[in-house]
Design goal:
This protein is mostly beta strands. It has one domain (about 10-135). It is built from no helices and 10 strands. The strands form 2 sheets. A 6-stranded mixed beta sheet has the order 1-10-9-6-7-8, with no helix packed on it. Strands 2, 3, 4 and 5 form a 4-stranded antiparallel beta sheet that branches. The structure holds zinc ion. Zinc ion binds near residues 26, 28 and 43.
Amino acid sequence: MAQSVPAQPALYSASGKPPSLNGGRCRKCGYVFFPPQHYGCESCGAPGEELEAVVLPGRGKLHSFATVHLHQGKGIEAPFTVGVILLDDGPAIRSILTTRTGEGLRAGDRMSATMAAQGSDEQGREVMELRFEKSAR
Ligand SMILES: [Zn+2]
């Protein structure tokens, strides 16, 4: 079987079950955020030195979602569904969902991260991207 690689390894860890996201936390006020950045705290204004890396489990609740039917960009074929997920650890993130049409989804559904194949790179390796799917709990 061909080797697989995560598309954006700086943003998440593909090995966990479910995969986890690489976020950040302010030591001064406790504000948790995603994606990671080193400029300073968006909440209290503390400098970048006060920010630390934190692992955010890929679990949360579906806040809202929308299905895209017409899309000109490359790399993804319409229809596809984008959701806003409120992670259990605080931050809200926007992610493409595994369901193409959003059928059966409701705001408030429990969601978990998963890795989905998104084609292959120049070396023939399978490229995996983080997605969210409805979970049982
Ligand atoms: Zn802060």
